[in-house]
Amino acid sequence: MHSKHLQFTDHPNRAQALGEIHARPVQPLGPEGRLRRVATYFGREPGRHDQMREEFASWCHKNQIKPQFMTDRQARYQVDDYDVTWQLHSEHVSITWMPENVPDDPWPQNIGLEAITAAKLLVTTRVDLINADTIHQTALEGFRRASLSYAKVEEGMAEIATDFLPDQDGFTRIEFAGAGITDVRRGVIARYLLEVETFRSLALVALPVAQDIGPRVDNVERGLENILKRLNSETDSQINEELLTELNKLALETAHFHGETNTLFAASYSYDQLVRHRLGLLEEKRMTGHTNMARYLSNRMDPAMATCAALQNRLNALTDRLTRATELLNTKVSIEIHKQNQDALKAISDTSVSQYKLQTTVEGLSTIAITYYALGVIGYILAGLHIEGMPSKTIMLAIAAPFVLALTWLAMRHIRQLHSKH
Q1: Model confidence, pTM
Q2: For 283-392, where are the alpha helices, taking DSSP H only?
Q3: What is the tens place of the pLDDT at every residue in 219-274?
Q4: How far apart are the C-alpha atoms of 164 and 149, rounded to whole Å?
Q5: What parts of the sequence cross the membrane (predicted)?
Q6: How large is the C-alpha radius of gyration of the chain?
Q7: Quick one: which of 188, 174, 203, 177 has its CA closest to 276?
Q8: 367-376 contacts, C-beta under 8 A, 24 or more apart
Q9: Quick check: 177 and 132 in contact, CB under 8 A?
Q10: What is the pLDDT of residue 1?
Q11: pLDDT > 70? residue 23
Q12: CA distance 315 to 260
């Protein structure tokens, strides 16, 4: 019963999930012909997918081409005697074609190659389908012996051979003798061969980046070692702060390396797995005296992938070391600052005690001085009085002195208390 009769609401991705297994239908191929593919790389820059679609749509409109879209990423169309397939992938776009009843042209006009302007050429492959069960010795002699991969597929009913070298037109040539298998199986094998060449090129894009960044990572590691050596012996807080600045610069540089490589390496590992998967599906059987594609590519790609993985591990370890070194140096600088603050507080405390003692001394002297001047004023007053029977001036000052001293001391104490409150 259809879901709508049950009043179900379709999952937003239902149609895409159901259609995914039909997203790349096999194109049956006859026993003879030449299949070519060009793949251009545009990376993962934002907006590039839309740009690729717009370029292709514009070309189709300009040339009055009405492609048959298998999905929004794959379309087929016919241009004169060329059967053409356009495919948009995560990081590249490819155009695959086979001429019918026309002389072979490695770079034919007006089949859609002009629709790709915002990407860089990466893959050029040709698969020569031979109407035979085996590849003739003459065709094998056209390959370089040192890199020749030659094997049987389809349980020995077909043969494939290549040397992974570009021909005079820039295309990697792959010979495919499969007269004894069906058109559908020929289409499947041809697609695997094209994908192996495409994915191995995409996987190896990361290797030059790893080789370029490697020496720069060496410099960062040496810089970190130098900072750690100085950190153990340095006591000057100013120099420690300079070391901290240098550490931060190294950390930023390492973060930049991570940004350059993380996505690229992850994609390369994925493409490497796809290469291995397609080679596994080919189920090559080695020919006596020859290697096959799986072994040859493994011997070349394994070291390349190991180089990328080693650099990624170094970057991860370097990031951890920089983090620990920064934390250690931050702690050391904080301790030194704390010690400096303690010394400053102690100096302030010592100064305060000295000031208090000096203030106390000054207050004592001030009390005596004020008492002295007060008694002098009283003396002048007594000298001006002529009261009969009054004791002498000296006796009167002697009697007044303790009272004046006490009053002066009380006044000074009261003033100090008022100051302490504020």
Answers
A1: 0.75
A2: 293-384
A3: 999 998 888 888 766 666 677 778 888 888 999 999 999 988 999 999 999 999 99
A4: 8
A5: 364-383, 395-412
A6: 46
A7: 203
A8: 367/405, 367/408, 367/409, 367/412, 368/405, 370/408, 370/412, 371/401, 371/404, 371/405, 371/408, 374/404, 374/408, 375/400, 375/401, 375/404
A9: yes
A10: 45
A11: no
A12: 11
Residue with tokens 């389908």: 129
The residues spanned by each domain of the chain are 20-182, 206-342, 344-421
- Tell me how far the alpha carbon of residue 179 is from its chain's centroid: 49
Query: Can you read off the two tokens belonging to residue 236?
Result: 């000057």
Query: What stretches of 146-291 show up as alpha helix (H) in DSSP?
Result: 183-203, 206-233, 237-282
Query: What value does the mean pLDDT of the chain take?
Result: 85
Residue 189 C-alpha from the chain's centroid = 37
pLDDT of amino acid 93: 93
Neighbours of 69 (CB within 10 A): 12
Rounded-to-integer distance, Cα 168 and Cα 334, Å: 67
The four Cα atoms 59, 65, 69, 73 give a dihedral, to 10 degrees, of -20
293 touches 149 (CB < 8 A): yes
Structure tokens at 265: 């390496």
Distance in angstroms (rounded) separating the CA atoms of residues 121 and 363:
93
One-letter amino acid at 178 equals: G
* Amino acid at residue number 331: T
Complete edge-to-edge strand list for the sheet that includes strand 92-99: 68-71, 74-79, 82-88, 92-99, 33-41, 120-130, 172-177, 158-166, 149-153, 285-286
Nearest Cα neighbor of 194 from 70, 78, 327, 87 is 87
Inter-residue contact 131 to 32 (CB < 8 Å)? yes
How much of the chain, in percent, has pLDDT values that exceed 90? 51
Element (H or E) spanning 407, and its range? helix 393-421
Specify whether the CB–CB gap between 162 and 291 falls below 8 A. Answer: no
Which 8-state DSSP code applies to residue 40?
E
